[in-house]
Amino acid sequence: MTHSSNYRGRFAPSPTGLLHFGSLVAAVGSFLDAKHHHGIWLVRMEDLDTPRCVLGVADDILRTLEVFGLNSDEPVIYQSQRTAAYEDAMAKLQSRGVVYPCGCTRREIADSAVQGIEGYVYPGTCRSGMRPHPNPDVTTSHSTTPAHPQGAGRGCKADESATTTHSGQVAGYLPMGEGASAIRIPAWRVRTDRFPSPQRGEGLGERGGSFDDALQGLISQNLERDLGDFVVKRADGLFAYQLAVVVDDAAQGITHVVRGSDLLVSTPRQIWLQWLLGLTTPAYMHLPVAVNAAGEKLSKQTLAAPVDMAHPAETLWRVLAFLRQEPPTELAGDLPNLLSWAVQNWQPERLRGLKAMPALA
Ligand SMILES: [Zn+2]
User: Fold this and answer.
1) Is 163 helix (H, G, I), strand (E, B) or coil?
2) Is residue 178 part of a domain?
3) Cellular component terms, GO, for this chain's entry (predicted)?
4) In this structure, which of 127, 144, 234, 258 has its CB flanked by the most CB atoms within 10 Å?
């Protein structure tokens, strides 16, 4: 296939479970949009969340995609191997004075915060420094070195101990207050109230984020009011999803992000980070997500069944029907031709304004 356009798209699954109907919808949607525009389509493994990552699942996902004829045009990249790039971005944010360490516990935030659109709105407690601490070095000796030991391979570790214990991993951080048993490592939060270059403020609103989605229209958020300063590096040493996605989309030259509408809420944060890092903002298209009979998004948590690999052509047919593409009946059972037909006849505008639809069993 020739690539006559500058379009670069991607599908970025988290290898926490096998591909299910909902994730296949996102894969197919992003593939069709890229190929319809004669673009490049990439697969990226978002295996950053080390403890949740399941060994071997990434390979299973790639094999499943291959069965459907969805092959990455360039080598698959793994977020677990991209720590250096995230460190660079953190250093940039630090040098621009838009991030700060935060030692607040969930409990402390819950006690003083209001509910926002995604949990509590961080009230900005640590913006002017972490609160008084027995060790004065603590607010000045932060390192961006991950608290996790390196060498976890692709980041797929079976145990979840990394989220709860940090013994022996961290120097320079002492327990908060008398008798505290856990070593407190700060998370890093990005300010949502500060533009490094004010002339770029237009379009995002004074303090918010808004963008024009190809299917969902104008999406607006006020980041400071609706979410508060959000975490870019977690207290367990892992980089936050929001930062990693932004860094990787830029590194891979992604021009078009096509993904599920469940990520709409994340997009203004990602655009905010693109601005702070001086990166280009891609075009966004958020597809409706597939929901089960109870109206819940299909996911590992809602026990969504893995994609039917025994009858891939039928499965692809259902995905295309879900995407309202109305493939001709004579192509039923003919996977390669069904896929080429779908590329040629891709009409995403049929999904305009749809955020969730029942999965087709
Ligand atoms: Zn704090």
Assistant:
1) helix
2) yes
3) cytosol
4) 258
Residue 298 CB partners (closer than 8 Å, separation 6+): 20, 21, 22, 23, 289, 290, 291, 292, 304, 359
Given this model, what pLDDT does residue 198 score? 47
Q: Do 74 and 97 fall into the same domain?
A: no
Q: Report the separation in Å between the CA atom of 133 and the middle of ligand 1, taken as the mean of its atom positions.
A: 13
- d(C-alpha 58, C-alpha 70), whole Å: 15
What are the average pLDDT values for consecutive 10-residue runs of the chain, which has 361 residues? 80 92 96 98 90 79 96 96 96 94 87 82 87 45 39 38 33 39 76 64 51 93 90 94 98 98 94 93 96 85 82 95 95 95 98 92 65
CA–CA separation, 18 vs 124, rounded Å?
38
Q: Which residues surround ligand 1, an ion (CB under 5 A)?
A: 102, 104, 125-126
Residue 183's pLDDT is: 55
d(CA 146, CA 187): 11
Q: Determine the length of the chain.
A: 361
- Look up residue 44 and give its two tokens: 């990226």
Does one domain contain both 183 and 302?
Answer: no
Q: How far is the CA of 130 from the centre of ligand 1 (A)?
A: 6
Residues contacting 356, CB < 8 A, separation 6+: 261, 288, 289, 290, 291, 295, 297
**Residue 50 has what pLDDT?**
62
What is the sign of the dihedral through the CA atoms of 127, 130, 132 and 138?
negative
